[in-house]
Design brief:
Structural class: alpha+beta
CATH architecture: Roll
CATH class: Mainly Beta
Shape: globular
Number of strands: 9
CATH topology: Pnp Oxidase, Chain A
Order of helices and strands: EEHEEEEHEHEHE
Number of domains: 1
């Protein structure tokens, strides 16, 4: 079941087509948060894309973030498209936090996303978004 959380009204929460369009234009920054094997936090900047309404695709070479996602099967992705010139606080940041789970490469779900996403490589991870959370 997909979780959705209400926004505080201090920032603009993106969803659906607006989120996909913003990510496709790479208007914002994405921080991927994972947990290292020793329990310490790991955060890194990457460029995931929305393949559809509930899947992110992200191409990662062998690195700590990829290792953490493959080991734990989960991560949190924060997407923020900042506009420092906006007059209102809600206009200065638009984005979303997404709780994600790794989709197994041998699964039918992975194959369906891969068929629809033209830029798949051997390094592409498919993540199922299991929760959308407001950024503020």
């Amino acid at each position: 079941m997909l979780e959705r959380f209400a926004a505080t009204g201090k920032y603009t929460t993106l969803a659906g087509d607006a989120l996909k369009a913003s990510m496709a234009k790479v208007e914002g920054t994405s921080v991927v948060a994972t947990v290292n094997e020793d329990g310490t936090p790991n955060a890194a900047i990457f460029v995931p894309m929305m393949a559809d309404d509930t899947h992110l695709v992200m191409t990662l070479a062998a690195n700590r973030t990829r290792e953490n996602i493959e080991r734990t099967g989960q991560c949190v992705v924060v997407y923020d498209a900042a506009n420092p010139q906006a007059e209102s606080k809600a206009g200065r940041h638009k984005g979303v936090r997404m709780r994600c789970e790794l989709v197994a490469a041998e699964s039918d779900e992975y194959k369906q996303v891969a068929e629809a996403w033209p830029r798949m490589t051997p390094y592409t991870l498919v993540l199922r978004v299991v929760g959308f959370m407001a950024i503020g």
